[in-house]
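Case study.
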Amino acid sequence: MTLASTQLASGTLKRLDGRVAIVTGGSRGIGGAISTALAADGANVAVVGIPADRERTEHLRASLNGTAQLVEFFEANVADPEACQRSVNAVIEKYGHVDILVNNAGITKDHTARKMTVEEWQAVLDVNLSGPFYMIKAVLEHMLERKFGRIVNISSVVGKMGNFGQANYAAAKAGLLGLTKTLALETARSGITVNAVAPGFIATEMVKAMPQAAIDIAKGRTPVDRLGEPGEIARAVRFLVDENSGFITGTAFDVNGGMYM
Ligand code: NAI
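After joint prediction, the assembly is written out as follows.
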């Protein structure tokens, strides 16, 4: 093994000072943990979200020790392609560049397919699948020009195994895996990596909104016998966006407590 190779294998993660990261829906839950982890290592974090995320970003900033100034809010509904482009333009205007995009924003509108309305289907596809595509379109030329980028799409175990009552959500999260692999192929020669993280059930507002019986079932199907913590997803994202993770692209990184292998 060469010296450089040994250093890659054993070195700690590189600091993110000078890096600029966009985290959609990055004010709470999994996104909040990702914003916190990236800012803790020195990245400037642009939280892109809907109006409700503005105040939550303020709360998040208040909880950050010494790195609050690294986190800023930029408004965009990710289901609106023009708003996505405007938010990316605003981030580039403020910081000069973007290195990292984490497509984390997501919603649920659960019903069995029999009862699911077309509006519920469409709303979830718009935010959870089209949203990441619009954000990717908005940063892609810029990353290609700079010959560097780290894109992480937050998919779900549900995109791999399906889930009762979540046809729209499962379809969107499975679609994200196809988007991830295709974009990984298309950008691999340009210093850009594109990966997905597929969390199991994580203790966030999204899961707390589920009926307790459904939470108990999810826990029961998780071999490690608990819900995951948002920080456990952030840890996987942090690894994937590292400068030295350039040989990892097109993966769907399971962080699910063994729920699906
Ligand atoms: P959450 O509901 O706590 O956070 C979602 C964030 O996205 C919020 O900040 C929300 O304001 C933002 N958002 C919603 N719609 C938006 C839009 N149209 N434009 C911009 N921002 C928008 O959810 P949680 O649990 O933190 O989930 C984060 C991601 O992880 C989602 O993509 C979710 O599908 C995924 N996930 C969550 C799991 C869980 O067990 N909590 C499991 C697997 C995946």
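Observations recorded in class. The mean pLDDT is 96. The chain has one domain: 8-200+230-251. We will return to this complex in the next lecture.
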